[in-house]
Amino acid sequence: MMNANLKKLSFLVFIFCINLSAFAQSKNVQLPANWFNLDLLENGYFGISTEKAYRELLKDKKPKQNIIVAVIDGGVDTEHPDLKQVLWSNKKEIPGNGIDDDGNGYIDDIHGWNFIGSKKGNLEFDNLELVRLLRIYRPKYQSTTNLTPLDSTQKEEFALYKKMVGDFGKKYEDASNTFSVLIAINKVLDSVAKINKKEIPTLADIDQYKADDETEEQVKTIIRKGAKEDGSFEKFYKNIKEGYKQYDAMLKYNLNPKYDMRAELVGDDYSNSYQKDYGNNDVKGPDAFHGTHVSGIIGADRTNSLGILGVANNVRIMAIRVVPTGDERDKDVANGIRYAVDNGARVINMSFGKSYKWDKKAVDSAVKYAEQKGVLLVHAAGNDNQNNDVEENYPNKFFDSKEADAYKAAHKKPSKPDFTPPMPMPQNNGMGMRPPYDRSALVKPVPIDTVKFNLPHASNWIEVGASAYKDDDNLKADFSNYGKYTVDVFAPGFLIKSTVPGNKYEEADGTSMASPVVAGLAALILSYYPDLKPAQVREIIMKSVSKVAHKVKYKNEKGENVRVLFNEICVSGGIVNAYNALKLAENYK
């Protein structure tokens, strides 16, 4: 008889198998490496018409200015051959002399700065903001009940605490369940490799493997289906190994309240929001995959015959490291923005985000500083297929202000019932790639009050969702967040090939890839029309989108498959287009 744990694992594997195809767009397709720069009518791929723009609009024009684009991210490989020629270099600083030659407070900041490191090394992992907040509020409210006398501030904090406890419970349960499945898949993959005396098995090896039990038979089904969905067994194998690594880190570090290496590895006065004299000059850090990929999309060298073509041809990439494996901290984000502004960036790409805030006023202050200094901020909308009009997503363009406080006080949400976190699963359980079935999809959606979108906000901000390559009802990338009032535009973010550490190129998808497409477009516009202000560049990009006239499908808050017009999921109702934008910029008044 199957024991209880094995029954549960078998059920989880079954659910995982169903969700593998139910929630994911097929990656069983070969796309041109440069598809995001191609033209829909000419090439059949819903790119942003960059190559058409260079060929027809820019061939007899010379760029007027080198545009510095700051990549605030997890690190950039400054030795990548497709990036070396497009890196920003601080000409006022003498490399390696251990002196702050330009007096900006940062020693040997040649290509940028790392705000999550010190002489002792670099911070690779950190908690989710949710966990950091629970560490603060749990001692205060863990024994509190709904009958405990509380003042208005305490009631607000207690409501937040209960929400966080519920969110943590769901995240931990989902991570544990997914990691259990990944362990099972890895066990089969490793067993088959060992039996066949291979480092990596083949799909034929998997088919020939005799399963020990029903669970392993279901795992074989997952592997076959996953290989088909991902386009090859090799891609599926790589994704599973990467997923195992991600979910392992999620449980060991991101969701572990006992883990906190900030003081030891960064050593700043974390309570001082406006301290800036900390960090080191190692802008690559321990894991530069994400930031290197983002950088290539923006400006990979267009003059060589290597790899890919970035969107912008006259750009300099400034590397600013603030994002660990885990959630970024508001203090570091604020300092990253200020560093970029003070060192000449005209555009800042921010492919990161989180569901909770801690020190938003520090970030707001930095955003306002960038606004005053004429710097455009481009931000990824997130990858949870959530409606950002309803759900919280930080950082964002809306300021914490008196008006926002007044609105919040007048529109308090009813408190949710208490949530009891599930019992932790056995040691070594962790987190994976795409989240499993989201029970919050069963919650009845709250009607949207559009008044809040007119509250004080930044004029120099573009929020970007991710689109796929085909002009059909799957155009919205299935993972992409959306928002009729909060997501400004969509841009290619599905199977985007770009630079990665080790002189390599790989495909990745996410709004993290869509955001640098828009940042690269903004830099391209500014390089030929440098007198434009951030709000003007934003207006040009939004007014020049390729409008999507047909409906697209996605899963709404209730978990239902729905089809809506594109202007119901973003402000502009379209996909950014370089050709249209440059034509509009030429005659912009």
List the helices and strands and how they pair.
Blueprint: H1 4-22, H2 40-43, H3 50-56, E1 67-73, E2 112-114, E3 117-118, E4 121-122, H4 129-141, H5 152-195, H6 203-208, H7 214-230, H8 233-254, H9 262-265, H10 289-299, E5 315-321, H11 330-342, E6 347-350, H12 360-372, E7 376-380, H13 402-410, E8 461-467, E9 489-492, E10 496-500, E11 504-508, H14 511-528, H15 534-543, E12 546-547, E13 551-555, E14 561-565, E15 574-575, H16 578-586
Parallel strand pairs: 1-5, 1-6, 2-5, 6-7, 7-8, 8-9
Antiparallel strand pairs: 3-4, 10-11, 12-15, 13-14
Helix pairs in contact: 1-5, 1-7, 3-16, 4-5, 5-7, 5-8, 7-8, 10-14, 11-12, 15-16
Fold and architecture overview:
- The protein is an alpha/beta fold and 589 residues long.
- The chain folds into 2 domains: 35-123 and 279-412 and 443-587, Rossmann fold (3-Layer(aba) Sandwich); 134-253, no CATH class.
- It is 37% helix and 11% strand.
- The chain contains 16 helices and 15 strands.
- The strands form 5 sheets. Strands 2-5-1-6-7-8-9 form a 7-stranded parallel beta sheet, with helices on both faces. Strands 3-4 form a two-stranded antiparallel sheet. A two-stranded antiparallel ribbon has the order 10-11.
- The protein is globular, with a radius of gyration of 24 Å.
